[in-house]
Specification:
Shape: rod-shaped
Radius of gyration: 52 Å
Strand content: 25-35%
Structural class: alpha+beta
Helix content: 25-40%
Amino acid sequence: MKTWRQGILMAFVLAVFGMIGFVPSEVAAAEALITEVPVQITLSGTLPEAAEDFSVVLKADDASNPMPQGSADGACTLVISGGNTESFPVIRFSKVGIYHYTISQQSGSNADCTYDNSVYRLTVTVTNNEAGGLGAISVLYRNEESEKLDCAVFANVYVTEPETETESETEPETETEKQTAKQTETDKSSAPKTGDSSNLALWIALMIAAAIIVSAVFVARKKQQAGNGGKSNGRKE
């Protein structure tokens, strides 16, 4: 009884599929999809105050390749704000085959940023699986490298502003300059000045002259006193 009912149900399902133009194999094929095409943006340097939007493009090598929803002219654009990780929308495959894509970043308009111009190659291989449907296997490579990657990474670099010297860094230099200035002043004060020798000779000459004058005055007074003493003694006699 159950087998009879199952047969009727299967016939009904096949009839419905036939009316809409599908067969079971095509229905199974429509379920083949690839869900993970992650893209990461990394940033370094002096970041802008407002996060910048970065555009990453998934492009099909063949215009007939399946594309994510929202694609146009064989290209799908993923916009990532700042340094974050996002994924492209799901790509669905309906038949066996090998499909090639490229992933690249569009250069932005910020003159202070160097945008990573790497190009990633995405290859999706769709095969029949044991359940009668389709299975999809994807591999990702960067540029012409052979290493398989899990994520397309774009490293963008902003110009780094020159660092200002901190107070602790400037103090030793200032102290050194002060010590150098003091040493220079000391050297200048201890060094003989131009004309010092002539000034010293002049002072010595003046001192000698003064000594001679004082000696002459002293001798003159002695002689005067001696002469006066002699006259007074004569008168007493």
